[in-house]
Amino acid sequence: MERFEGSFTQxxxxxxxGIAAALAVLRHGRLHRYNTAGDEVAEAALxxxxxxxxxxxxxxxxxxSGGYALGCALRAVGLDRDEPVLSNAFTLAPxxxxxxxxxGRPVFVEITEDLVLDLADLEAKAKATGxxxxxxxxxxxxxCDMDALMALCGRLGVTxxxxxxxxxxxxxxxxxxxxxxxxxCFSTQTYKHMNSGEGGFCITDDEEVAARMVLLSxxxxxxxxxxxxxGPEVFQRIRLEVPNVSGRMDNLRAAxxxxxxxxxxxxxxxWAALYRGMExxxxxxxxxxxxxxxxxxxxxxxxxxxxxxxxEEARIVAFLAACVxxxxxxxxxxxxxxxxxxxxxxxxxYAGAQSCPQTDRVLRGLVDMRLPLTFAPADVAQxxxxxxxxxxxIGQAEAVEAVAAPQVQ
Length: 409
Ligand SMILES: *Cc1c(COP(=O)(O)O)cnc(C)c1O
What we know:
By secondary structure, this protein is an alpha/beta fold. The protein is built from 13 helices and 14 strands. It starts with 15 loop residues before the first helix and ends with a helix.
């Protein structure tokens, strides 16, 4: 029986030009973004300028993490204490965590079986709570109909902030992910699309929101050193009103990140090849549902999800164990107790008891895996063969028992 020997958590190394740039920063020692010599431009300021250009946004602020970016955006658009903030019931823990940290109250919105926000439930919850804000999570790179969403939010008077932790470089009908809402937030944590260990970005076209985010990030009165930021007159209006909530990007990580912007398009193509390979390898397995990808989106397939919709819990547990025994470590969002990053909205008790039965049903059968770029197409083909074989074996046992059951009674 074949066994997969690779690692689902091994990313590619930092490229040689990133290493050289990092060494240069270490050698001069000016790691803090506002510690510059003469008319030197900090790596962090250059990074912001280059990432703004990559996305087409007017303004960009580089920050300490993706979670920080979300909280910074919420504060910058004027979140009030205890104000409800709509967000996906299926997302990662830092999303509701950022809402709570900024003083808001997460209100979870159902997802569909295609893993995107349910727009009917969004409308119902917006009306029921009077929420003015939506923190939209493009969880695992699945993007809802952005045209319909933006039209709906326009009608409802809801401001959209996008969590693009899984959609850096993705597009919806040719518009970059993060460019629909008033702010787009990104993460450069190791498991995302650019790797600086920790880090993040906020992008926006709104000059006042941009200035607030710069001030919030902890710019002291040195905001003039930012390049992808509005002019001093905008800061002048608000600089004594906005608290400093330190969460800056530093020059070392910025140096590691700058060369990676130019690699994103190639990475997206390689991820697409891995993703399509997995999709082909798992097509037609009875009882296993793949997630359809709309023609409007251009996605970054750095992870892969499928559903086992009709499977009993014990079968899923047996299937996952059989896969792990063959080196294929799958994550399951249906476990009673969260393992690693698989916590669900019911586990985020600080948000108060909320019920999303449709999301519960979907997550009960949701299986997830990373597709790091250290995988070759042959690795993906092998992983798919193992999953297919175990799904057939365990799924067929279930079918046989279902037929046998009446005789047992
Ligand atoms: C990783 C992640 C974040 C937060 O990013 P960090 O840089 O880890 O703080 C936010 N949302 C989603 C969906 C993520 O996966």
